[in-house]
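README, section 4: Worked example with a bound small molecule

Sections 1 through 3 covered apo chains. Here we extend the same pipeline to holo records, where the ligand is supplied as SMILES alongside the sequence. The molecule in this example is zinc ion. Nothing else about the input changes; the structure line simply encodes the ligand pose together with the chain.
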Amino acid sequence: MNQNFPKPSQYNFSGLGCWLTLLAIFLLLGSVGLGWLVNGFLIILGLLVLLPAVAWLGFRWWLKRNLVEDQCPVCSYEFTGFNNVKFRCPNCGEPLQVEKGHFHRLTPEGTIDVDAVDVSAQQQED
Ligand SMILES: [Zn+2]
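The generated complex, written as structure tokens:
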């Protein structure tokens, strides 16, 4: 029974001592006239906490503006793409681009659009 009884831990006192030492250092620095150092440290600490929060909010805002969810015009596979970025459909590999919030097919660069020759044939199929 006595073995399981928690002993008065020394760690608690050393932890408290650590904080007291820090506080003493701050008070010492303040009394020496280095209050600006303490203020600067606190400001940096505050910035370290605030900056990631602001960055995260900005990142979410950016994502909301730039993420577009739509269906692939070729295979109707629904996925998410980035605005103003060329990408490929993860399902069929068709090169796509976002235009006005919707996915559009990209005509591969350097190829001549020869589909115009078959207009009559396509019209008959339709
Ligand atoms: Zn597709």
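What to look for in the output: Residues 72, 74-75, 77, 89, 91-92, 94 surround zinc ion (CB under 6 Å). The radius of gyration is 32 Å.

Section 5 describes how to batch many such records.
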